[in-house]
User: What shape does this take?
Amino acid sequence: MNYLVAGLGNIGAEYARTRHNMGFMVLDAWAQASNAVFKTERYGDVAQVSFKGRNFYLLKPSTYMNLSGNAVRYWVNKLDLPLENLIVVCDDLNLPFGTLRMRKNGSDGGHNGLKDIQECLETTSWARIRVGIGNDFARGHQVDFVIGELSEEEFQQMPEICKRVIDGIKNFSTIGPDRAMNFLNVKPKSTME
Assistant: This one.
């Protein structure tokens, strides 16, 4: 069984540690832990990992965040996947840092990457995992915050956050979305309090 996991972010070294690149960070961590290598393919970098008889295609779109839909649509069609086997990982400034939310469908919540995917797929019926980045910015400085680098303290928490997201995706594929959501959608133990 095949799954497409699209991690949203912006290409380029200057964005590597930014809050908007949560999706890329999760996929990089998964590929590294699995000794998988990303190859540059059409519309993005793709790596393959396996878990309990399931194949996961990890996609980091090369289209920039706000145009992620073309890449996701292309790979869904190329892999001939049902949309219930698509999972998108992205940042969310409406959630406190490190809080995770898995949903089987839903709105874009003001996230331009999700909005573009929704428009390209012409549906909201696909799973997404939002990784909270908090919203500690002054009025009018949302863009600076989102494409700003993680603090050192936040960056130290990324391995655990990535592990939780990866476990959530594995659960999604093995025990189903509803039970996976029960495990993933819990308040994290924060080291920042």
The two ends are 41 Å apart (CA to CA). The longest helix spans residues 152-174. The mean pLDDT is 92. The domain at 2-184 is CATH 3.40.50.1470 (Rossmann fold).
